Amino acid sequence: MSNDQLSRVFSALADPTRRDMIATLASADATLVDLAAPHAMSVQAVSKHLQVLEEAGLVSRTRDAQRRPAHLEVEVFDLMTKWIERYRREAAERFERLDELLAERTAPSKTCDTPTTAKPASKGKSA
Predict the structure, then answer these.
(1) What distance in Å separates the CA atoms of residue 118 and residue 82, rounded to the nearest whole number?
(2) 16 with 62: CB under 8 angstroms?
(3) CB neighbours of 72 closer than 8 A, spacing ≥ 6?
(4) Residue 23 and residue 39: Cα distance in Å, rounded?
(5) 8 A C-beta contact, residue 18 and residue 36
(6) What angle is formed at CA 104 by the lines to CA 99 and CA 107, rounded to 5 degrees?
(7) What range does the domain containing 100 cover?
(8) pLDDT at residue 69 above 80?
(9) Are residues 92 and 55 in the same domain?
(10) What digits encode the pLDDT tens for the residues 78-99?
């Protein structure tokens, strides 16, 4: 997945209406009218949202007689997941190294394990 496509995908998913449409399509294919039903907006507005999802590669549309159902392209999510996982793994490794470093620095030193028992010099009179 190119960076430009990845940018389009994340940009498309930034809108809550489009994320809701993705959630609907995750359970089954749906027509434009089906996708517009739960939203308080025109079919034309929902059509523009669907077009953004199509351009990002998240959704495809097929022709079924008079219907044009939208279909979720799961492969794009697999590619996104791999991209995210790569950086999650790198971040986790950095945190593990930081934990190890902090553990080394906060561990008591072996040379300082036993307290010194030096007696203070007396300032009193000598006998």
Answers:
(1) 62
(2) no
(3) 22, 25, 26, 29, 58, 59
(4) 13
(5) no
(6) 115
(7) 77-105
(8) yes
(9) no
(10) 888 888 999 999 999 999 999 9
